[in-house]
Design a protein that fits this description.
- This protein has 313 residues and is an alpha/beta fold.
- It has a single domain, classed as Aminopeptidase (3-Layer(aba) Sandwich).
- Helix content is 33%, strand content 19%.
- It is built from 8 helices and 10 strands.
- Strand 7 and strand 8 form a beta hairpin.
- Helix 3 packs across helix 8 and helix 7 packs antiparallel against helix 8.
- The longest helix has 24 residues.
- The radius of gyration is 19 Å and the shape is globular.
Length: 313
């Protein structure tokens, strides 16, 4: 497969990145789909603007989060993020639905912080990268080159409280294989190696700090909403060994992934498959909410039992 931008085998420079950006078209509205919903939630949550993306002709996009109104610095913090990859729709709408329906379920037990759409420019263009052809979900590290990622990291650094859980909401789509992986290979001057798309929901645990019981609790809850992705014939999902039904592992922090940006003891990345003939958009959004709620229930139960130790953001 030859990508239409760049020369095969040669990494992109400024000209190719500019050509890629010029090819992107706005297809939906962050203001309508996200900011308007956030405004409706002001009566039940504090709205925090933690940055602004100034993208020239593409406009200015505020970065917003919702958090527990009566924030208590003595309580642990539960973090939910969505839309790190803007094209992954249920991550955004699942985070917003969780905030609307459940943000205040944990008052007196924990603070909740929800960043529903980390990458609004990419959300509007149904894209994986930011305007500079940088993947925000490889940029959650001190030398990251994504303003979307660094802005969220600053918000967490300034947040009083202790992050004990982080659920980062994602999707794996058919366009991963038809568009985004070929684009990545072209950008980096590497050959594209075709892969497979798992049919169903799965989780990415942390290689360096695995929490198998936590992941299993989420898988169990989500299985009641949508189907769990089986392993490929070689025992892998997207090339990674399946360590438990619907669970693989990545080194979250070293890869610069969003789910690895805090020292939360419990962290995971969800992956919903919206292109499955067995799933609807409603099921995908519901699966994201179910994953967050199950993760929180598991963590708060273990905190109450005295098992939570690593609480620093």
């Amino acid at each position: 497969m030859t990508y239409p931008i760049g020369t095969p085998g040669t990494p992109w420079e400024a000209r190719e990145r500019a050509a890629w950006r010029a090819a992107q078209r706005k297809q939906r509205s962050y203001a309508d789909d996200v900011l308007r919903v956030v405004e409706r939630l002001r009566d039940r949550a504090e709205v925090v603007e933690y940055g602004r993306l100034e993208e020239g002709a593409d406009g200015v996009l505020p970065l917003v989060a919702l958090r527990t109104r009566d924030w208590d610095a003595e309580l642990p913090v539960l973090l939910v993020t969505g839309g790190v990859h803007g094209y992954e729709t249920s991550g955004v709408h699942g985070a917003l639905r969780f905030a609307a329906d459940h943000l205040n379920d944990y008052v007196g037990r924990a603070n909740v912080l929800v960043a529903p759409c980390v990458s609004p420019w990419a959300y509007e263009r149904i894209q994986r990268w930011n305007p500079h052809a940088v993947d925000p979900n490889r940029s959650f590290k001190p030398d990251g080159r994504s303003q979307e990622s660094s802005s969220l990291m600053r918000l967490l650094a300034a947040t009083t409280g202790r992050v004990i859980l982080h659920v980062d909401l994602h999707e794996t789509t058919d366009t991963d294989e038809t568009e985004f992986r070929p684009a990545l290979a072209a950008r980096d001057g590497k050959p594209h190696e075709p892969g497979t798309i798992p049919d169903g929901f799965y989780l990415v645990d942390d290689t360096d700090h695995p929490q198998p019981d936590f992941q299993a609790a989420i898988i169990d809850a989500v299985s009641k909403v949508t189907h769990i992705a089986p392993a490929d014939a070689d025992g892998t999902i997207i090339g990674s060994v399946v360590v438990a039904p619907g669970v693989i592992r990545y080194p979250l922090a070293s890869l610069g992934l969003c789910a690895g940006m805090t020292k939360a003891r419990y962290r995971t990345t969800t992956e919903v498959y919206p292109d499955s003939p067995r799933a609807t958009p409603e099921q995908c959004n519901a699966a994201q909410v179910a994953a967050v709620r199950a993760g929180i229930a598991f963590v708060l139960d273990h905190e109450r039992a005295g098992d939570g130790r690593d609480r620093s953001a």
